[in-house]
Amino acid sequence: MFAHLTAHSAYSLQEGLATPTELAQAAKAQGMPALGMTDHNLLTGAVEFVHACKKAEIQPLLGLEIDLSTGRLPLLATSQEGWANLCRLSSALALQDDPEEPCSLDLLVSLSNDLIAIGSAGGKEEARQFETLKDIFSNRLYLSLQDPRVGLPLSSFARSLGVQMVVTHPIYYLKPEQASLQRTLTAIRLNQPLNTLSDEDLAPAGAYFLSQGEMLRRFHGFQSALKQTQEIAERCTFDLSLGEPNMPQVPIPNGLTPSQYLRQKAESGAKKRYGKITPDIQARLDHELETIATMGYEPIFLIVEDVLNFARETGVPYSSRGSAASSLVAHCLGITSPDPLRLNLYFERFLNPARQTPPDIDTDLCSVRRDSVIRHVFEKYGEEQVAMVGTINRFRSRSALGEVAKAYGLAPKQVRAMAEKLPHSFWARSQERDEDGQPVSPFNFLRELYPGEKYKQIFDDAEAILKLPRHLSMHPGGLVVAPGPVTDLVPVMRSGGKGVIITQLDLDAVEEFGLVKIDLLGIRGLSVLGDVAEFIQQDQPERYPSSLSVLDSTPVDDKQVSDLIEQGKTIGCFQIESPGMRATLREIHAKSTDDIMAALALYRPGPLTGGLKDAFVRRFKGEEEIHHLHPSLAPLLDETFGVILYQEQVLRIAHELAGFSLAEADLLRRAMSHFDPGKRMQELQRKFVSEAEARSGILQETGERVWEMMAAFAGYGFPKAHAASYAQIAWRSAWAKVHFPAEFMAAVLANWGGYYSQRVYLSEARQLGLTVRAPHINHSLRNFAVASVSGEKQLFMGLGQIKHLTRRTIEKIIYLRPYRSLDDFLTRVDPRSQEAENLVKVGALDGLGSIPALLQRLKGGWQAGQMSLFAINEDVKEDWSLEERMVVQQEILGVSLAAHPLELVADQIEKAGAVAIVDAVERISQRVTVAGVRQASRRSRTAKGETMLFLTLEDLSGTLDVIVFPDLYKQVKQIAISNHPMLITGVLEIDRGREEPSLKAEKIERVLR
């Protein structure tokens, strides 16, 4: 029997074409008992390969191919320690100053234990180095035979050194016809045109998956070398250690075990949270702590508590989300805020002893200060023991087309033009299917536009590499903490962006090694609250000792906040500011965090398209009677008007009606949410129906209907614990908007990236009665901030938004002020002439002279210290008009603060009978005319290949999505994509996928002054 030992998967980036699964299936199809995968320099595909081989019932041989000075060297691990050395070796090579530098022999010697090496000796240099490898690997070194024509001299050379010869065949793709595609991948990797590649750049000739029969035929004269593949496989029979916890050591006071220490902290926290520990609280704590101890997960809680204590001590706002809020221990440690007892949250939704993977505690942090928390983790637990989690970026339709077309020599301009014609929705080849169920190619439309063999080959190659790994990058928030060096368990590398150490394995693969994983994700909503809290604390230090104490003291019952939420006036508020969400808040008359939780659970694609939201609203309004299939469901579903809104409700029904343990109930929920129709589900259904009848007196027919209801809604259910965490942030946002509107809007505007454009937030600030000012040298900071002018809190745009103003000049402006005159400012700050001119133009020197007079003086030329030679001539002309200020501010600031563009054409808009967007969205199925300016737009193509436009229109009251179909788009293209005010008439409809109103445009015209 023969087995391939040196296969390369697609995780040999832009070298291999086959996935680990495809390689394993090919080996099984050929009756091979084992398969070796030796990807070049990386171990990214190792876990996927192990699972693929086990599914194919063949033995996985884990390996790595490294570069030596004379060529490549495949290595195979014979044990868990061998795997660790592969990880250390791959990591060390990836972390070199030049990752492409060959491996030194010193490094190889230090990490050679439990590794088999398969060396080559095709030339003099290779032969000399092979002799050196013999000293390193001894009887774990084999001589590779790839060409039977040189078998006799190689056999003689092997005998002279006392090593075995083994037949190998390098595999880079599955079928011989894929050789040209591998050539294209090589061109992409080397960033070279195809016609410049040499044979040395490419994979060896014929590097496809040769059958066992072909290998036996080719090497029939070298039976011993063929047999060595089996002997090598037998030396590599270890099972990679997956699924076992690898918990780090954490600092524990002397005399305490981790379990005792965690209990001590949890009970202390419970007293702070609840005043005293009641029997119910103690019982819940005991249950959770016993489960945590049994599974050995104490370090997870202790590490996360330490990390978040650091965040609290350094004033970084945080909020743990997801199922972690179901844990009372996490609540008592200060990791989570929502009270799991009040909210009936079940611990098993977070940590189910029936599941083997460690639980996730996902934490959101202020995005601006997130890096300081991550630095703390690295510093406290050791640079070697911590790494950010990697993620695999794959070729999508546009990136695949762009890279392939470049390899074929197409000009960048033509590549961009082709890419723009691709549908936006396509991620990969399997996303849409035709009438026969076959995948629809995202390149079909381009094939019609670009006929010819060259283009056909480009589109074929681009489609063939869809979904293949392109490169590795950093996961948005995940990091791992290991019991020792991370590289003892998983390989690492340096990310291409910040140069941070990341795992070569993605999140799913890392989790299988049982490492403590913490998700620290930066979110804008907490950055806004953090900024607001700092403003308030600095203004009222006697009331608030720290910025986080501002947020902690936010009342949970405030009528003004309730009114704001019920009226949907929540622009700027975390998670509840979109038009559809604000409409949902109004529909259910949301007034509390519990109501916000319901809105968050309702306003998602599942409930919107499945009718759950409509049923909830009808019952809330009394338009539909609440009917329970059985009276015992009433206490479980009353809070959600008889519909299953939260995942936790499935657990409650299974637990309380049918006696499922909470662990069993959670497994049931997971199976239902994944729509698993298998045998296990049938067994669970029979158990539920029979136990519900025995325990709760629910007849079999009714029990089956309850089961069907659970199954129908389980896929739409939202984690109540997650909703509770986000609802708290949303409530605090609304509280800040009500009681500190200036500080809140300054923070919203300072933290870019909300649902709306900056213009909408500026308009919202004005509607709150705030004075919004352009940047000013005596009042502005780098970003939006509040300053008191003549006793009034005013909102000033930041100096950082002024085009061409450098960080150095901004810092000097803030440090050296106040300024009494232009001369004073220029002499002390000494800005460049363009900086000074832009400051004057946007009104940053208001009060020190009119804009025309200041500009004339600047145009006269100036040197620091000589400005007194030039007097400001206030007779130059009157100050700029409103329109002049708007034009210049739009150019230099990116937005007009002097006025909204619609304010200049208000009379024309009124004459046209246009209604405000905020009013228009209430007129569903009616024809309306609205006025606005383009906030964003995106072109798309219909099935017939015609261009249409999706446009986001903005006025002073909000935004509205507009659909411009091809016939109208052809007529009004220039108007629709301009920045000028426009009038749009059409019929308002509801997009059932998002439950957002959208306007189907029938007429578009420019508003003229």
Key attributes of the depicted protein:
1009 residues; alpha/beta; TIM Barrel; six-stranded mixed β-sheet; five-stranded mixed β-sheet; 42 helices; 44% helix
Describe this structure in words.
- The chain has 42 helices and 21 strands.
- Among the domains are: 20-235, Metal-dependent hydrolases (TIM Barrel, Alpha-Beta Barrel), CATH 3.20.20.140; 258-388 and 515-525, no CATH class; 396-467, no CATH class; 770-895, no CATH class; 902-1006, OB fold (Dihydrolipoamide Acetyltransferase, E2P) (Beta Barrel).
- Residues 425-431 have low confidence and may be disordered.
- The protein is of the alpha/beta class.
- 46% of the residues are buried.
- It has a six-stranded mixed beta sheet. A five-stranded mixed beta sheet has the order 7-8-13-10-9. The protein has a five-stranded mixed β-barrel with strand order 17-18-19-21-20.
Distance between the termini: 85 Å
CATH superfamily of the domain at 20-235: Metal-dependent hydrolases
* Count of β-strands: 21
What is the share of helical residues?
A: 40-55%
Quick overview of this protein structure:
The longest helix is centred in the C-terminal third of the chain and has 20 residues, at 720-739.
Please describe the topology of this protein:
Elements (H helix, E strand, L loop, with lengths): L19 H10 L4 E7 L5 H11 L2 E10 L2 E7 L2 H15 L10 H6 L4 E5 L4 H14 L3 E5 L5 H11 L2 E4 L11 H12 L21 H7 L4 H13 L22 H17 L4 H17 L2 H16 L4 E4 L6 H5 L28 E6 L3 H12 L4 E9 L2 H11 L4 H9 L23 H6 L3 H12 L4 E13 L10 E3 L6 E3 L3 H5 L4 E8 H16 L7 H6 L6 H8 L12 H9 L5 H10 L2 H6 L1 H9 L13 H4 L9 H12 L3 H12 L5 H18 L3 H15 L5 H20 L1 H10 L7 H10 L3 E3 L11 E5 L2 E5 L10 H10 L5 H8 L3 H9 L9 H9 L22 H12 L12 H6 L5 H4 L6 E15 L5 E8 L4 E6 L1 H11 L5 E10 L4 E11 L3
Parallel strand pairs: 1-2, 4-5, 5-6, 8-13, 14-16, 19-21
Antiparallel strand pairs: 2-3, 3-4, 7-8, 9-10, 10-13, 11-12, 15-16, 17-18, 17-20, 18-19, 20-21
Organism: Candidatus Desulfolinea nitratireducens
Catalytic activity: DNA(n) + a 2'-deoxyribonucleoside 5'-triphosphate = DNA(n+1) + diphosphate
Protein name: DNA-directed DNA polymerase
